[in-house]
Amino acid sequence: MTFEYFIGNRYLRVKQTFISLITFLSIAGITIGVMALIIVIAVMSGAESEFRSRILGVESHVMVMRYGSAFTDYRRIIKDVEKIDGVETASPYVFSQIMLRSSSGVSGAVLRGIDPGSAGQAIKSLDKAFLEQRLTKNQDAGTSAFVPGIILGQELARNLGVMENDIIYLISPRGMIAPVGHIPAMKRFRVTGLFESGMYEYDTSLAYVHIKDAQSILHIGDSVTNIGVRVTDIYKADNIAENIAANLNRKYKTGSYWARDWMQMNRNLFSALKLEKKAMFIILTLIVLVAAFNIASSLIMMVMEKTKDIAILKAMGATDKSIRRIFVFKGMIVGLAGTVLGMCLGLAGCILLEHYKFIKLPGDVYYFTTLPVKLEALDVFVIVSAAMIICYLATLYPARQASKLNPVEAIRYG
């Protein structure tokens, strides 16, 4: 151990009550700041991950569309899409805005016509067997009294006042022209299932029917409006979407195909979450900054108290660099102690929140009933690094003032 670290270690154990109190408050401030940063950032990362998993449980990773018309040759296009690198599955969809009417209410909804066999692999919030049981079996009835099935979001069913096996009417804007004007198409459906995705926007607006029923009521024949694609790496969905559109336009020599990935379709939500995460990081870093001022003030008082010691060291041959190193070492030890303690308490808090879930949230207000926690190594590294850099910067001014001390003047007047 060099003499700089030896003396810095001795100064850490100084017995002056006031300086010791400021040192303790500095450690406590850094501990609280780092702990709060780790817990809050972990909760916000958990919320982002929870939103992403719930959205991708209902939405496709990439949605392929065609300008101006539906896909009449969608089976061939699906085969072309599935040959592209990074594509896992592709499924046909029929999307449309509709009205649903029950005996006790009316509500707007988004109709999704799906093929249960292929869409069951793409819609993670709905089991493939569930879809086939509730939708496919209704296609085999073939009687005049046959009523096709429809699966509603729980909130949508609650708004309509219906339960399973109730009859509702689906009203489509694509009807027929009569002497009295445009007449919307109407068809009876039986509620064969309810689903809950965990996202209020989806649960209050989505209705699933078999793709053949959707094609029939929308009068689009054997065609679909969208092709949903799931990819192997969700974070490369934007590049895969560009490849899909480019390959289709090049092969069919047209510019009518385009694709959107899940990040584009939910850009506002995830941009807001990232902005809040950055804002919380900046705000909570101020706690560490305040604690760093305590480190600076304790070092300044230490320099004033140890003026004669510094003068003697410089008279014995200690360089300015050595004097700076003594006080930087003392300040960094205080910062390291607070940072390590705060990191340990923060990690412990995250583990307790994730395991015991003792903080409950009202389910009718928030998307989740407990705080979601996702601890990422990169976030912890950034927080710890930021705290140590702030502590290091706080030591520079007192250490520089100590190194500039004139030993002759200090001994004379010290």
What can you tell me about this protein's structure?
- This protein has 414 residues and is α+β, with helices and mostly antiparallel strands.
- It is built from 15 helices and nine strands.
- A six-stranded mixed beta barrel has the order 2-3-7-4-6-5, surrounded by four helices.
- β5 and β6 form a beta hairpin.
- α2 packs antiparallel against α14.
- About 1% of the residues have low confidence.
In short:
The protein has 414 residues and is α+β, with helices and mostly antiparallel strands. 56% of the residues lie in helices and 19% in strands.
Whole-number average pLDDT?
85
Largest sheet: 6 strands, mixed, barrel
What is the strand arrangement across the widest sheet?
2-3-7-4-6-5
Count of alpha/pi helices: 15
Proportion in helices: 55-70%
Shape: elongated
Could you state the oligomeric state of the chains shown? Answer: single chain
Rg calculated over all Cα atoms: 33 Å
Total E-strand runs? 9
Report the β-strand fraction as a percent range: 15-25%
Order of helices and strands: HHEHEEHHEHEEHEHEHEHHHHHH
Parts with pLDDT < 50 across at least 5 consecutive residues: 139-143
> Which structural category do the helix and sheet elements fall into?
alpha+beta
How far is it from the N-terminal to the C-terminal residue, by CA? 29 Å
